[in-house]
Design a protein that fits this description.
Blueprint lengths: L22 H9 L6 H11 L6 H13 L1 E4 L7 H12 L13 E4 L4 H8 L5 E5 L10 H13 L4 E5 L2 H5 L3 H15 L3 E5 L8 H14 L3 E3 L11 H18 L4 E3 L7 H14 L12 E3 L2 H14 L12
Parallel strand pairs: 1-2, 1-8, 2-3, 3-4, 4-5, 5-6, 6-7
Length: 323
């Protein structure tokens, strides 16, 4: 498994100080980005998805994917007991095999962050918390900042915030920028993942603009989706975001992570995404510090496939716990 690369603190680059000076300068910059060729983007994503990964490479990819999962429960019926159970699974996904890696994080609502923190104490698994009126983001800025501070005070190591899609789609880019900056400040030392809800952004051009806007504002990660809408992570929108982080680092020296979330359910899907990472952003992103899967059911399939590689047969349906 790759070692964790030291983080480069995400902050607004001095190169973008003039860009974020006003709505008009920000709009001029974002609309000056190269347009996206949808046919070419989808063809490349589909082509990379045909790569065949077998034997030892497949075993490596499965363990890498497990180590990149933000094991997630974001339901109104969440209880402390469910969170503690998932925390145990995050630390030791396969109780029968101690060689199975832990997941990267456990992602919960802010009111469950303290429970998750206690359950994960000393494990190395991070506590991630959604915030800013997740998933709709329809709340006043003061409420969003209080939500963020509460999650961090409860022990969250990472904050997953949602942008104001209404503001973005109406061209009020400076409002979105300033909100991300304010949440970043409220999050303190916690890493900030900025969720765009790509399924609501309508066009690939908007996804590219949102990616650059998030990075300019100081995101540590850019994230596709909440998992709460019809269209979530796809190979094409993730490829587009991987191109953005690659180009942003080339321009600024600042590395930003990517997190596709929602709809990634099988080992085959996960491996396709890892190929996208390697072929687009490069090996530097093949680490849980820089790439995550927002998933709940994915872990079970990875564990089943891992067992199949080890024993030559599929386990019964009771081999993994039901989340």
């Amino acid at each position: 498994m790759p070692t964790t690369t030291p983080t480069i603190p995400a902050k607004a680059s001095p190169a973008f100080a003039d860009v974020a000076a006003s709505d008009s300068t920000l709009r001029r910059y974002l609309h000056g980005l190269p347009g996206v060729d949808p046919v070419g983007l989808e063809a490349r994503a589909a082509g990379l998805g045909t790569r065949s990964i077998k034997t030892t490479a497949k075993a490596y990819a499965i363990d890498l994917a497990i180590s990149m999962i933000d094991l997630t429960t974001l339901e109104g019926a969440d209880t402390p007991g469910k969170v503690r159970s998932l925390a145990a699974k995050a630390v030791r996904p396969d109780p029968t095999d101690r060689t199975a890696p832990s997941t990267a994080a456990l992602c919960v609502y802010p009111d469950m962050a303290a429970t998750a923190k206690e359950a994960l104490q000393g494990s190395g698994v991070k506590v991630a918390s959604v915030a800013t009126a997740f998933p709709a983001g329809r709340a006043a800025l003061g409420v969003k900042l209080a939500d963020t501070r509460d999650a961090v005070a409860a022990g969250a190591d990472e904050i997953d915030m949602v942008i104001d899609r209404g503001a973005f789609l109406s061209g009020r880019y400076l409002k979105v920028y300033e909100e991300i900056r304010a949440v970043k400040e409220a999050a303190g030392a916690a890493r900030l993942k900025v969720i765009f809800e790509t399924g609501e952004l309508s066009t690939y051009d908007n996804i590219r603009r949102a990616s650059w806007l998030g990075m300019i504002a100081g995101a540590d990660f850019i994230k596709t989706s909440t998992g709460k809408v019809a269209v979530n992570a796809t190979p094409a929108n993730t490829l587009l975001m991987l191109e953005a982080v690659r180009d942003f680092r080339a321009q600024t020296g600042i590395q930003v992570g990517v997190k596709p979330a929602g709809g990634i359910r099988t080992s085959k899907d996960a491996i396709k995404f890892l190929v996208l990472v390697n072929e687009t952003a490069g090996a530097d992103w093949l680490d849980s510090h820089w790439f995550r899967f927002g998933a709940s059911s994915l872990l079970n399939d990875l564990l089943m496939q891992r067992q199949k590689l080890a024993t030559g047969r599929y386990s019964g349906p009771d081999y993994v716990t039901v989340d």
